[in-house]
Structure formats: structure tokens, C-alpha cells
Design a protein that fits this description.
The chain is built from eleven helices and no strands. The chain is mainly alpha-helical. The protein is globular, with a radius of gyration of 19 Å. This is Pyrroloquinoline-quinone synthase. It comes from Shinella zoogloeoides (Crabtreella saccharophila). One of its GO terms (biological process) is pyrroloquinoline quinone biosynthetic process.
Length: 256
């Protein structure tokens, strides 16, 4: 009796697998969100720009914690040596401060108190919950899925390039210092992608693992998209939730 082969369970070829991963970005990456169209074309008010900076901070400052959570359960020292550079990119050294400090320079440039932004007091509840969900995902999911979720970086250089051009063209606050975060990501993200994409393609060799990697990348695009949906509802449509920063209110950093 001939066995029946279920082609949906056969592993994808390496080329097919990579194409499926990249298609997630084509269909779902947040460069297509209407808030980014508004921001990059100069359509945002300064209140909206400030709200974006405040809420995006929650994501930016959590990236090193997400990567540290992954490293805490990584048994391969070679993988740890490579992955920890992600933390160094964002936390930086004592003097330079890395991507996090560059984001606070952007905050200052748009007229915010960096200490207030760093305190996280003005972040929307939805933003906090979304970012926390991402940290838990990377902490708890199998390594292939946890690593694949970071592959949104494959699609990031295009949006950073558009953002740099759009901010410089349309906003007075934009200069070399205030947009330094995005310029650095043009070289940092491709470095990370080369390693991570190769690792995922090499280690997700069964169809279930490949589908889990694709689902993880899809989840990450949902994380990014949902943050912008919440931002639009609060600061473009005017439905600012309780506890979130309100345009014009005093910026008070958390007291120790």
C-alpha cells in the first residue's frame, strides 16, 4: 500500500523559505501604516511627533531587555557572542550610550524633556502591553521563533532611509544630531540580519519549524503595527487614554 505524501508537511527549500519570510515584510511591515505616511510627508503636528517619540521609547528601551532575555536561556557561547552585540548597539558604552541615548537626543530635539521620556510615565497603556508581549515572546518561545521575530530588520533600512529624508525635508527639529539614531541603524541592522537570517534558514529544517519562524515574524509585524494603531487612535483621532501623555501638559520625570 502506497503511503500518501502530504506536501504541506514537506520542508520548504531554502529559497522558498526565505521568500516566505520576505513576503511577510512585503505584506505586513509597518512602513505601510498610514501614520508613517503622515510622518514622513510632513503631515504630523508637533504634538503627534512628540507622542510618537514618547511611545516609541518604550519599544526602544526594551530591545536590550528582550535580547538579554533571549541570551539568558541560550546555551551556545558562539551564539551569545554574536547576539550580545545587539545589546551593545542599543545600550552602548558608558560614554556614548548607544541607540537609547541617541533616541533621547531626538526627544530633546522635538522639545521633550529627555528625563521625562526615559521615565516612561507618558507611555500609553496599549504601547506598554504590546511591548511587554514581545519581550515575553522572545523569552518563552523556541530559539528559532525567538530569533525569527527579529527579522523585521530585513525591511528596516528602507523605512529608515525614507524617514531620514522626510524628517530633514519637513521638520525644523531634524538635523544630523537629532536623527542620528536612524543613520546608525542603516549599518547596524544589516549586520544583524545577515547572521540571523542565515541562522534561521539553517536551523529551521522541518516544515513545522519553518512555519513557526514565519508565524513569529508575522507576530513581530503585528507588534509594530499595533503600536501605530494605538498611536493614531490616541493622538490623531484624539482618544488619549488615561495616564498617557497629553499635549501641553507638564513633563514630570519619575522621582526616585
Amino acid at each position: 500500500m502506497n503511503s500518501i505524501v502530504n506536501h504541506n508537511e514537506l520542508p520548504l527549500s531554502r529559497a522558498e523559505f526565505e521568500a516566505r519570510l520576505r513576503q511577510v515584510g512585503v505584506e505586513r511591515y509597518h512602513d505601510k501604516h498610514r501614520f508613517h505616511d503622515r510622518l514622513h510627508s510632513g503631515g504630523c503636528t508637533m504634538d503627534e511627533v512628540q507622542a510618537w517619540v514618547i511611545n516609541r521609547w518604550q519599544y526602544q528601551c526594551s530591545i536590550p531587555m528582550k535580547d538579554a532575555a533571549f541570551l539568558s536561556r541560550c546555551h551556545d557561547p558562539d551564539l551569545r557572542r554574536v547576539w550580545r552585540s545587539r545589546i551593545e548597539d542599543h545600550d552602548g558604552g558608558v560614554e556614548d550610550g548607544g541607540g537609547i541615548r541617541r533616541w533621547l537626543r531626538l526627544a530633546e530635539g522635538v522639545g521633550l524633556d529627555p528625563a521625562y521620556v526615559a521615565s516612561g510615565r507618558g507611555v500609553m497603556p496599549a504601547t506598554r502591553f504590546i511591548v511587554d508581549a514581545y519581550i515575553r515572546f522572545v523569552r518563552d518561545e523556541p530559539p528559532v521563533a525567538a530569533m525569527a521575530s527579529s527579522l523585521t530588520e530585513m525591511f528596516a533600512p528602507a523605512i529608515h532611509t525614507r524617514r531620514i529624508d522626510g524628517l530633514l525635508e519637513h521638520y525644523d527639529f531634524a538635523d544630523r544630531e537629532t536623527i542620528a539614531y536612524f543613520r546608525h541603524r542603516l549599518t547596524e541592522a544589516p549586520k544583524d540580519v545577515r547572521f540571523t537570517l542565515d541562522w534561521v534558514l539553517n536551523h529551521a529544517v522541518t516544515r513545522p519549524d519553518q512555519e513557526a519562524a514565519i508565524a513569529a515574524l508575522t507576530f513581530k509585524t503585528d507588534v509594530l503595527w499595533a503600536q501605530l494603531d494605538a498611536l493614531w487612535s490616541a493622538y490623531v483621532d484624539g482618544n488619549v487614554p488615561p495616564g498617557a501623555w497629553k499635549p501641553g501638559e507638564a513633563q514630570l520625570a519619575a522621582r526616585p
